[in-house]
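haha ok so turns out i had the wrong file open the whole time. this is the CORRECT one, sorry everyone. sequence first:
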Amino acid sequence: MSMKFLDFEQPVAELEAKIEELRLVSNDSEINISDEISRLEGKSRDLTKSIFKSLTDWQIVQLARHPQRPYSLDYIERIFTDFDELHGDRAFSDDKAIVAGLAKLGNQPVLIIGQQKGRDTKEKVARNFGMPQPEGYRKALRLMRLAEKFNVPIITFIDTPGAYPGVGAEARGQSEAIAKNLMVMSQLRVPIICVIIGEGCSGGALGIGVGDRTLMLEYSYYATISPEGCASILWKGADRAAEAAEIMCLTAKKHLELGIIDEIIPEPLGSAYRDIDTMAKTIKDVLTKNLNLLLAETTADLLEQRYRKLMAMGMQH
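then structure:
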């Protein structure tokens, strides 16, 4: 798969193109240019480190939306075994913007709920561009209650630009569905780990985002509104989205400082899409560590700590 580089990565893209050209020349001739390729690869790594060392908040938003960034199903197939997807809210339909099912993390049974975007046009439409409708949140709620019944921990993968704001979704109770999930998740008697893997935007993210541990990938973002939406409200135009991103405190680093999240999961050099397997292994290790800690707690302590965590939000600063 050829890499798609963002605007601020163009110097790296030019170097990578030169490296690819040299590889082709090396394959077609007897000339040994491996030393030159190695030198350019080192230069590319150093340049990537330099660029990623000083990313702006807007550039992090762009990385969170990168078209090749891993989605929930990419991680599910690499991290878990025996995944059995479950469908439908038993009231209206099956929302393909939310995938959910039972699986195993090592030997531990878990319920996985993840928001899923699409790669090509057909899948994007089928997944509604990762924007869940009420039936998606009600499917998640049905399965979370099932997990509680059988004492199965819950892991959620958050990656959405927001819940779908269409007329039909509103008519079917979008806000009520999200609000009910917030209430029920705060009281579920099983461990819940929430992982923001890309975009964690608005109530669409919160609808599966209440838990005992909230983790963020290094180049994901978490916000009440998109930078474009914020700019449109403040300055009557989305063209100042980059400026809005800088004042919204939406990066993992800022959320950790504010006490909104519990841990930042580091990404491979160049972000998650450059090395999905390594990213998946890192997430698996962090999930395993946090889940083992939560499973050691009594139910009463788990609920008390979750309550205190939620009540403390916004109080640190």
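DSSP finds 14 helices and eight strands in the chain.
again sry for the mixup
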